[in-house]
Amino acid sequence: MSIETNETFRPKIVAFCCNWCSYAGADLAGSSRLSYPADVKIIRVPCSCRVNPMFILRAFEKGADGVILCGCHPGDCHYSTGNYYARRRMTLLFSMLDYIGVENGRTRVEWVSAAEGVKFSATMNEFVEKIRSLGKNVRLGDLRCRS
Amino acid sequence: MKYSYYPGCTLTTKAKDLDAYGRASAQALGFELEEIADWQCCGGVYPLGSDEIATKLSSVRALHEAREKGQDLVTLCSACHHVIKRVNDDMKNVEDIRTRANNYMQLEKPYAGETNVLHFLEVLRDRVGFDVLKEKVVNPLTGKKIGAYYGCLLLRPGKILAFDNPENPAIMEDFIRAIGGEPVVYPYRNECCGGYISLKEKELSKSMCDTIMESASGFGAEMLITACPLCLYNLNKSVEEKLPVYYFTELLAEALGVKEEVDRA
Amino acid sequence: MQELIKRAKELLADGTVVRVLGWKAGDLPYNPEPAYFAKDTDFADFVYNGFCGANLSKYMIEASKMEGKTLVFLKPCDTYSFNQLLKEHRVEREKAYIIGVGCKGKLDIEKIKALGIKGIQSISGAELTDEAETLTVQTLYGEKTCAYKDAMLERCHVCKGKEHKIYDELLLTSRDTTDADRFAEVARIEGLSPEEKFAFFQKELGKCIRCNACRNVCPACSCRKCVFDSNKFDSSQKANADSFEEKMFHIIRAFHVAGRCTDCGECSRVCPQGIPLHLFNRKFIKDIDEFYGEYQAGEDVDADAPLTSFTFEDVEPSVVSTRS
Amino acid sequence: MQRIGVFVCHCGSNIAATVDVEKVVEIIRQEPGVVHAEDYQYMCSEVGQAKIADAIHEKGLTGIVVCSCSPRMHETTFRKAAERAGLNPYMVEIANIREHCSWIHKDVEEATKKAVILARAAIAKVNLNAPLKPGESRVTKRALIIGGGIAGIQTALDIADAGYEVDIVEKTPSIGGRMSQLDKTFPTLDCSACILTPKMVEASAHEKITIYTYSEVEKVTGFVGDFTVDIRKKARSVDMDKCTGCGVCQEKCPSKKAPSEFNRGLSNRSAIYTPFAQAIPNVPVIDREHCLKFQKGKCGVCAKVCQAGAIDYEQKDEIVTEKYGAIVVATGFDVIKLDNYDEYAYSQSKDVITSLELERIMNAAGPTKGHLERLSDGKAPREMVFIQCVGSRCADDRGKSYCSKICCMYTAKHAMLIRDKYPDVNVTVFYIDVRTPGKNFDEFYRRAVEDFGVNYIKGQVGKVAPQPNGRLLVQASDLLDNRQIKMEADMVVLAAAIEPNPDVRKIATMLTASIDTNNFLTEAHAKLRPVESPTAGVFLSGVCQGPKDIPETVAQAGAAAVKAIGLLAKDKLLTNPCTAHSDELLCNGCSTCANVCPYGAITYEVRQVNDHGIREDRRLAVVNEALCQGCGACTVACPSGAMDLKGFSNRQILAEVDAICQ
Amino acid sequence: MITGKKQAELIKEISGVNPLKCMKCGKCSATCPSYNEMDIKPHQFVSYVLNEDIEALMQSESLWKCLSCFACVERCPRDVKPGKLIDAARQLLIRQRGQEYLSPDEVPELLDPEIPQQLLVSAFRRYRR
Predict the structure, then answer these.
(1) Do A50 and D629 touch (CB under 8 A)?
(2) What is the architecture of the domain spanning A2-141?
(3) With a threshold of 0.90, does the pTM exceed it?
(4) Which of B26, C11, D351, D533 could be stapled to D513 by a disulfide with Cβ–Cβ 3.0 to 4.6 Å?
């Protein structure tokens, strides 16, 4: 058993969650005991628009295998417009990563409201599954592409 | 303007009129119906089961051929229209059906609902325009009180067919106005005539048609028009308050002055 | 060229401007460089020919801080950069007297060399008054010729047009040099498999020596202090920051200028390693056009920039994996 | 380097059952900067908090990490504890090892490992924390109420009675709202006007209340305690000060073909009009669209007959700018449009009406002077059918997903009143469920059935078909008898769903208050803060928050008033110190940040800076800390990284990233 | 032996209908033109599927009385589409047992000279595999 666990790939996954909706959604997932793998670690930010693409690239450079950004649903941002900016920024960033040949499943944006504990948990399970299937992040560690 | 045209089984046999008047009217209105090669029967009813593929393929073939020609696909029969439009919607929006149908068909370029399916009436409304049609009418049916009978297949499910307001449609009434007649609106114009049930349960469909006829004549209709051979058949079986029932293309041909030509031929 | 000098001298003489920003001859026949001219005598080595690709807009940031007005010569594409800087309050319109100069396409010496023309002593046919159809090159090995078009910079083949977006007056006429699809190469790469894409960029970016020429020449990279040079994004250990910087430099730089880059092509022009850096910027431009509607930075000073605006119906980031 | 203390909470067994807290303490103790680490049963208890205070004093801690439940739960608790012990409260960070760890993981080893990582991330962050001090902002002691229905009036009266100035902005020419259109009210059957009119009068006479009718909120800036609002007073074309309300102008107005909004278009009114007799203010408005003077250039009858000389055709819209400390939204509702329900023939037959239209028909001041009659031919009905849930409880996009809540009760009321006044009229109600939770509500419904003989049939109606004889054929199912019913009726009344007033979207955007998918305003907490919007200083009153009947609306209006009063009673407010700020040496002055700021908190000024000895004037971004809400949009937009966010700085977040990815 | 549970699953799969969305308003039954001919009424189909009582459903006359006129589908406020459920039950029956409602021998006596092809085609689709 323990040998198997050692051999199983355990990805490092960073989840940026906005304070108002998604972090609360994650709390609800917790209080509803909706489990998802411990590979996911959450960083609280005030709003999805606080997430600088540099944070995401930094996570990958430091060895993350997947990064997910969760924010309020469009139209529900606590700051009214933050997630709209985040949506554009992340769309362009993800498209660029795809363009240079990085697996686009390693990045994801999901809108999770404070009431969506089920969705939060389901999303994280799905995302971890995806990252496990992609395996260890090699390409994003060094975007000079000097592997 | 050229359209791919899917006549369907009945229009080449029992409902030849519907077809011939339609083609002649199209010509008079300056568009052409180009019959697609090797069309196969649509099956008459849309296969509701989400796991049925084979019964959807004949529609996909027709749709695919129209796409290859870069044309919209026009139908005249309500049933063909219903089936083909819904299969097209499946091909566009239901991944499972699209994948399996394409696997079966082995087309060069998979078909994914690219073709626009139009009913002849939609061509008149959206492409020709009822105002243009009105100008081309030479024998207006002035004074004729005509009830439009839509039935179910043209209108429902409203979201997929996107033909007209399913509960309060106007396209046939506007058509009647365009050819100079006076439309009679009655509430049962979108209730079912009984459809295929008339094969075995003749009384049931008769009673449904009676209700429709009564409602239409009660509101003053002198005749009914329809776009469906089966509706026509069933309505003609009605016993009470029997009103004459015509295909809308027949009245169209008459209004455009091409009916005699067709009748001679 | 003589018209430019004449007009510059007039404007200096009547006090409209106190200095002129133009190009002066370099040590080789094909490397003129940006320079200020203040006195009549300075103009001896003023040049304006096919090799004056350098975009002078960025120099106007410094010039805007100086006393008095500066006369600046801007080619049509340069005016986009100037406009963008104006939008970002980096240059002052009142401090600039803009002469929009004509352009028949700028030349790429690497392309001439690639045509097998070596030992270059002088080049003629590159003046704006010339037909600009053929270049005649005197070399150690005799006279060689090549078609002007074949020696043009990549960016001129996808020229944004011969119209100046901002100017006080115009001199010399331009020629339309567009004969290629601006996004063809980006689209080609998009069509590759992830492995091929990665291999392509690995090969190109592997050449980077972090000389910062791209950053220094870029009119959009006009920050007083680059994020890579500040400690705002460090985690206190400089060593880490260095490796982060090393690994992510070009992507981050491209993102920082996304929506602001006018696609002036200077980054690729100055890269000593010949990395096609414009392919990053153009990818963003292509995406922005496709996702949010066509947008050309520097075209309209008052337009909303794509990354500082939004619509409620914007595409979701998942579009990246779902689009065909 | 900070001197950090780490406190790991067991939360009884909530955490300790899955996370080996002692082990966490043991590992974390070794982290650089950590000078104290301990675990305790309940860190949030008195004793737990005392442990934090003790460690601060004894070990000279400069930073605290509490590994416990969600910061949304107890961050404030621990910050206050630290503050009492003399530490800046913003030197506390929480590692959420309950909701994000122990509650969702089963394996102890795994959960413990994760808890350690989360603690490390918090330590990394707190290492870079700096003491923050909340700013102060003043409170303007005046409230704005948007909407002058019963909700708005009640809130206004309660706030005004507490001694604060209140302004009501009402879009239509009179206050009163939907309630003024009702005939009787359930469950007591009082006349609506009889109980509403006194409140309207009281509001208009209250010395602390100013009413802006025929006015709309145009622009809102500012923040809690200090909103600045532009109110557009639409041109009334009548001088409010001169008009005596004699009504002659309305009588003489030759243009009498405008549909009466008050009567739901069932009757016409003159172009110069007051919506109803008890209108407040009793000053008419000229509806310029229907006025001959405005449309054709001639007429002017009203000006001629007005003895007071109050008619002013030249009047223009006027913008009033006022400051407010609190804003209450009370924009109410309308019934949905029935375009999607043509199977009920609403648009085809005049005798198919909505319940609100019936309300007008039953009202003595209504289009039929209170006589129940068919609008098609004026005949008295013999057979009436009510259809419930038209557009409510829908899963498709034709209607609304929610229960409109009031229909069951008002239909019972209508049925009862009709049976009472016209005993020979048969009344049939087709219902799906009869929902009557409320004091005396079910008794009321039962009375309709038992005492008044209203025929309730469980089953929805499928189609209403107008018949050639002028009657309406209703085709329905009776689910309990398992039969299909076809019956002829003379009138059909549809209980159409209610929806928030469409204007609420615009208002919510102006207030940066959030709304749900049904356009209802979202409350700050569904259970514990039901009358507050998540936007500080904005409160919710009435149906704009969700379907409500009158007693509930009045109760909620009072609750919203109390919350507003609680705010207005303060002289100063503390502001969130986690605001953006710009490094003047890095700032380009490019304005990119200002373009994304939703609060207009960033302005620019030219200032001399000393950049390593170089003195020059630079254009620099300046953040107004009172306006900044700390979203951070600007920090990412800033190309040079000059803009940063206190409490969530780039370096802090990167430190967390690094700690997690280690 | 296929269990009721399995059959119910199949019906849900074939029809794509989620019977749990039904709020039992009865609008389908109110609107059905064949209502009086049916032994199991349209609104009851949902309960039969939920109760996994598929045998009874498949014995029902109603399968052959539905006209596929989609009135119930169009008007259902809960997007349940009872018509699709009925059709799925019918298909299940035809597929599993070859229990056709129409045999070719019957056809001649049902014919009259005016019957359109469409009628025969539709009836065959509905009544037979």
Answers:
(1) no
(2) 3-Layer(aba) Sandwich (3.40)
(3) no
(4) D533
